[in-house]
Specification:
754 residues, mainly beta, Immunoglobulin-like, 4 helices, 45 strands
């Protein structure tokens, strides 16, 4: 296997220069993996907050004048994770916790000696966290030090909530609960009150059982993150093994939580080039029921996803289909519980490519979507939660057949997924997965995937993750396997990750996403994160020379591809990020491949090239935000020049707008072998209140002269109850083109709680 000598030398050179360019005697301590804060704590050292029982419901108005708060001892003493790990927070925070038979109540006083500099950038549901002041709480209701629920707000009272599995290995931001929060700006900071329904969170039984808990606050003008129970900067609030205890809860019970949410939708749709509009009406229902304190059953009948955001177009320069994330609510909720795969890298400090799209074991877009069309779904069941020490995630769904415009029929299918996982040792787990797709009308048309996985936490901050699966399909035999093993060490100064992924020649997975079979991927992801006081005074908080190298061979060890990312990243004090990187690439193709209609297809064979990247993102909390990218160098048989630029403006927390362009020009070997791909993207978001929003997305493909628009209005008229009005348009801007495709959808949901 040919080794990349120049990138290795470059990486060693930049690391060496980083370490010796500044005199450590004149610098603060360089983080060395033993950091100021521990990675493991004993039960004796775990912090504790005591909850106060109340029979008088506090008024949730953001004003901390209720009697229960005067009777409750606050916790304080928050510790920095960023920028000065281990030091006291620059601003004082006091938190109180109370409860009654139905709710957990949390009150916080976020003191600020410069309240006029508090930053609020957004009031949308599930708002972005890193560009504004925030307060967050995580509840570990089973005290397993792995899983929890997060509730977050900002000084304007916006709400964000999500589920956490395996200390952030899987995060589900689409989980929603009918909780309430109110905030108040005061002369010396801001205050908040939360009311979290016990019925909406699963919890273990037991009188007086303690929960895990932690609190976090972001002070945006300092780009500062602080925690009540201290967490090293390598990790985030999801590191539940370091959380404190919520004691004195009494016999708190979660309840059964029965929610019935029917919907009514009306649509008028004309396909691109169609002769007329087709008007339809749909009804359906979603049901959520807490079977036990640990298990939740979800039922959906005739679900509708018309309100899901449109996919963002991208230029594709590879021989593979593009990966687009799931955006439909039913499939997003609890999606992390079905995850099986690699250890999640720390995304707080890493900007390098991740490459995990080589095999996504469970990819829910395989259900209810085909050939770019929505396939109707009769109904589905989902069972998630924890019972008898086992985490359970199960899904069953049936799709209807669909006849497309060409007369082709997409057949009806049954889908099923079962994921089980059991915790072992102090913070490890083992599990298994079974997935199946079978034709409704032809039971001989099926695909099954099944296997086991393990995630073991070893000493010295090392995580070991592995899985092995096998597939079955009619007429397919031999080499139907896939397996992966990886070791990951995450620390303040040095991070290292290496692993092997192997996909057999005849592996099939109708519920997954993967690019090719018959390959082995050897991967290395490592780097250092030095911090120097001399650079911090000049605006640079952290540097990050790193490599993310992926080698692909066939099962005999012959190289078929490589992706070698060697980069140097600068993290600025204000939250901006810049990076320069070299990316040597190799690709072997076995069939002719055409990158653009104006370019002759590439012949089978091996292709080598190197391209350079320069990227920059400014402070996201400012009035104006820019995101720039430049790529130059080789591409297949020739050269490329790609530019990406986005400018966003946020004049208030109600309104945000952005305009971006992605332009790639290529000059391949041979006369006339040139092409240009250019895509413009415009977005606008306006929040009337914390419960009413409008979003607009417009995209223009200049090469195809194709315009797309998606406008969505959302009113949350009651908790977890919505009114959606969605307008879509697709048209060619050429003269004499087909009639534009247009649709208007109105959908109303109403959640009924029992």
């Amino acid at each position: 296997m040919e080794m990349p000598v120049r990138p290795i030398r470059s990486f060693i050179a930049v690391c060496g220069a980083t370490l010796v360019a500044f005199n450590p005697a004149n610098a603060q301590e360089i983080s060395n993996g033993n950091g100021a804060l521990p990675n493991v704590i004993s039960e004796e050292d775990r912090l504790e907050v005591r909850a106060t029982a109340t029979t008088v419901t506090p008024k949730i108005d953001g004003i901390l004048d209720d009697a229960v708060w005067r009777q409750t001892t606050p916790v304080t003493g928050f510790i920095q994770s960023e920028p000065d790990e281990g030091r006291a927070a620059t601003q004082r925070t006091e938190v109180r916790v109370a409860y009654d038979a139905n709710f957990i109540y949390i009150a916080a006083y976020c003191y600020d000696d410069e309240p006029e500099r508090i930053v609020v950038a957004d009031i949308r549901r599930d708002f972005r966290m890193d560009n504004q002041d925030t307060f967050e709480v995580i509840l570990d209701t089973f005290t397993d030090r792995r899983n929890g629920y997060v509730f977050a707000t900002n000084p304007a009272g916006a709400r964000s909530d999500w589920q956490v599995t395996n200390e952030g290995r899987e995060i589900n931001p689409s989980w929603d609960a009918p909780w309430n929060v109110q905030t108040k700006r005061v002369a010396d900071g801001w205050t908040l009150e939360m009311a979290i329904p016990l019925a909406s969170i699963r919890s273990a039984e037991g009188d007086g059982r303690a929960w895990g808990i932690n609190f976090s606050r972001r002070i945006r003008r300092n780009n500062e993150v602080v925690f009540w129970a201290p967490i090293p900067r390598s990790y985030a609030l999801t590191r539940l093994s370091l959380a404190g205890n919520l004691a004195n809860l009494g016999n708190v019970k979660g309840g059964r939580d029965l929610r019935v949410t029917p919907y009514v939708a009306g649509k008028t749709v004309r396909e691109m080039g169609g002769p007329a509009f087709d008007e339809t009406a749909d009804v359906g229902v979603d049901v959520k029921y807490g079977l036990t304190n640990g298990l939740t059953l979800d039922l959906t009948v005739n679900p509708d996803f018309a309100q899901a955001e449109a996919d963002v177009q991208r230029v594709n320069l590879t021989q593979f289909s593009q990966f687009f994330p799931e955006k439909r609510d039913f499939f997003l909720e609890n999606s992390g519980l079905f995850y099986i795969g690699d250890t999640r890298r720390n995304t707080r400090v890493s900007t390098a490519p991740r490459g995990n799209e080589d095999l996504v074991m469970f990819f829910s877009r395989r259900m209810g979507l085909a050939s770019g069309r929505a396939v109707p779904i009769d109904g589905g069941l989902r069972l998630t939660g924890r019972e008898a020490g086992v985490e359970v995630a199960a899904l069953a769904l049936r799709s209807r057949s669909l006849t497309v415009g060409s007369g082709d029929v997409i057949p009806s299918n049954d889908y099923g997924v079962v994921r089980l996982r059991r915790n072992i040792f102090s913070n490890s787990d083992v599990g298994g997965i079974f997935m199946t797709r079978s034709g409704v009308d032809d039971r001989g048309d099926y695909n099954r995937v099944y296997g086991v996985d393990a995630n073991i936490r070893l000493p010295a901050r090392i995580d070991w993750s592995s899985f092995v699966v096998n597939s079955e399909s009619p007429g397919v035999s031999g080499a139907r396997y896939a397996y992966q093993t990886s070791f990951n060490r995450e620390a303040n100064f040095v991070h290292v990750k290496f692993g092997l992924l192997s996909i057999g020649e005849n592996f099939t997975n109708d519920l997954g996403f993967f690019r090719r079979t018959g390959v082995m991927r050897w991967s290395l992801d490592t780097g250092i994160r030095p911090r120097y006081a001399s650079l911090r005074k000049r605006g640079v908080r952290e540097m990050h020379p790193h490599i993310v190298w992926n080698y692909y061979t066939d099962q005999s060890g012959n190289e078929v591809a490589k992706r070698l990312h060697t980069g140097y990243t600068f993290f600025f004090n204000d939250g901006g990020v810049a990076q320069i990187a070299a990316n040597p690439s190799t690709e072997t193709i076995t069939t002719p491949f055409q990158i653009h209609p104006d370019v002759t297809p590439f012949a089978p064979g091996r292709y080598d090239w190197t391209h350079w990247q320069l990227t920059y993102s400014s402070d996201p909390s400012r009035l104006f935000f820019i995101n720039l990218g430049l790529t130059v160098g080789g591409l297949w048989t020739g050269t490329q020049r790609s530019t990406r630029a986005t400018v966003a403006v946020t004049p208030s927390y109600n309104f945000r707008a952005s305009l971006g362009v992605s332009r790639t020009s290529g000059d391949m070997e041979g006369p006339g072998q040139t092409f240009v791909r250019e895509i413009w993207t415009a977005r606008a978001n306006y929040s009337f209140t914390t419960n009413m929003f409008v979003d607009a997305l417009a995209q223009y493909d200049a090469d195809r002269e194709l315009f797309n628009a998606n406008v969505r209005f959302n009113l949350i008229h009651h908790p977890l109850s919505d009114l959606f009005i969605v307008y879509n348009e697709q048209r060619f801007t050429t003269t004499g083109g087909p009639a534009p495709g247009r649709s208007v959808i109105i959908k109303v949901t109403q959640m009924l709680a029992y």
